[in-house]
Known about the structure:
Elements: H1 9-35, H2 56-60, H3 64-80, H4 83-133, H5 135-152
Helix pairs in contact: 4-5
Amino acid sequence: MSDQNSTSPAVASxxxxxxxxxxGKEDLQKGLEDTFPASDPVSHTTTxxxxxxxxxxxxxxxxxAPKVDEALAAVKARxxxxxxxxxxxxxxxxxxxxxxxTESAQEAxxxxxxxxxxxxxxxxxxxxxxxxxxxxxxxxxxxxxxxxWGMTR
Length: 153
């Protein structure tokens, strides 16, 4: 991410797909305008216009056009809102949660290290006390362990 001029293949692919969708929207919009209010399905490849027996002035007075324009504007506004904002917020939340989990793991590791250290020191002091209490027994045990270990090698 240090080189701002180069983009990853995924980003380039995203931009190409968005460009294709924009051109497809224009064709679809033109097809919708050419066929509305006909009962035929919208097609951006072949357009069919509805014919009526009414005068042109009566066609202009239909109250349907503003509603369609409003609906199309709402759909376009919904599609134009970047979905990446939501994804970026999710990434930020996940990073924050990962930070909290990391801190908890570090605290748990630190606590278990302290406990282990104190247990080792306790066992070590107990062994030292036993050796000082019975030095000949400790010497005999060490000799026996050395002998067995030497025989196994």
